[in-house]
Amino acid sequence: MIEKTTDKQQTKEKPSTDIRIMDSSGCEGCPAHNRANLLKLGVDMEDWDFVVALAGNPNTGKSTVFNALTGLRQHTGNWPGKTVTRAEGGFEFGEARYKMVDLPGTYSLLATSLDEQVARNFILFGQPDVTVVVVDASRLERNLNLALQVMEITDRVVICLNLIDEAKRHGLEVDERRLARDLGVPVVPTSARYNQGLDELLNAIHEVAIGEVKPKPRRVKSHSPMLKAAVERLESQVLELYPNLPNSRWVALRLLDGDEDIIRSIRNGELGELITLDELSAEQRKELTPEVV
């Protein structure tokens, strides 16, 4: 396990309740994650301040990053009702305790496979405080597709630019500052197998979790006028049903694509559990649901 302590902590310990963050509802001191949904997904946050999702394509060194950050403080099991393996671990940084969930390695979040469905649902319904997307610096063009899809769902993203040693070996150099500006999220170069860049990665995770850094992800906007109009119309209906839904545009796009999982989550009210304030009544949801789907 990696433990990081600040000078302040060395002189005086403070309980985790002193952690102050700002969630999407504007509630200072409230965590961004959805505790109830995380529990349904098999993740207990009783003794943890923040939850971090670790996403990435296969063969990006994601498991190496997970092991380097959590050490021996981890355990494995299956996702509830799934045959997909889940690994959880923990680490401490400053005054906060972090639970890290290693999501299945996937190339996209379009839910065409069970692994993709598990990863997508955890980010969408669990609303992790930070989602770290591990990308291979030597094959960046392959990995940015997943990163952009994650950034469509959540603002709280940190890019772990892993395997920089491999990139250098192939004569490649990535300008992480330019990449961070282009993507609108923190980008941290690492070589996890050699323990390079991990302190910087921990610091980036912490800054996003406590709200010190507020990423503004780049969103794809090159849609045709017809598609744009359809998305806007459907998004307005989704927001009428769930006014505080933070992922309304992405949900509208998935509904247009015929995503059965998203359609089902709206019909059975599961999507409504993302809302923490101003929930609509059951009668209002029943009245509006047919118009959305």
Largest sheet: 8 strands, mixed
By CATH reckoning, the class of the largest domain would read Alpha Beta
Query: What is the rounded Rg?
Result: 19 Å
The CATH superfamily of the largest domain turns out to be P-loop containing nucleotide triphosphate hydrolases
Low-confidence stretches: 1-29, 275-293
Oligomer class: single chain
Q: Helix and strand succession?
A: EHHEHEEEHEHEHHEHHHHH
Q: Helix/strand/pairing class, anyone?
A: alpha/beta
CATH architecture field of the largest domain = 3-Layer(aba) Sandwich
Shape: globular
Distance between the termini: 46 Å
Characteristic key phrases:
293 residues; alpha/beta; Rossmann fold; 2 domains; 12 helices; 8 strands; 16% strand; disordered N terminus
